[in-house]
Amino acid sequence: MNRTEFTIVIAIILLAAFALGWFTYWLLHRFTRVAGGDVAEMDRLAQSLHEAEETRDQAILYLEQREAELLSQNAQTDAELRAAMEGLRDARREAEEMRSYIERMHANG
After folding, report:
1. pLDDT in tens, 40-80
2. Which stretches of 1-109 are DSSP H helices?
3. What pTM, to 2 d.p., does this model score?
4. 73, 65 Cβ separation under 8 angstroms
5. Could you state, in order of their start, the residue ranges of all structural domains in the chain?
């Protein structure tokens, strides 16, 4: 094999490698590219996702506010319950004192 034949064989091999690479790129690009209609669909889905995230954030904020409100109301109700129980305890003690006083008055009388 002389020098000219060797150069031609190398040129053919390089051309075949280039053609194979270009064909592979074209094939991958053909199967992985997004069609125009798919882009619109992806934009619509992205917008829907964004709206859903905003709605979720608003719901979380509402629930946090509602939870704080209910905790405050619960604390107030507990305070009122303690006050009512204390008043009931005082009323029972007074009733018991009155009962004792009446029994003593009947016993002396």
Report:
1. 788 899 999 999 999 999 999 999 999 999 999 999 999 99
2. 3-32, 36-108
3. 0.49
4. no
5. 1-33, 36-108
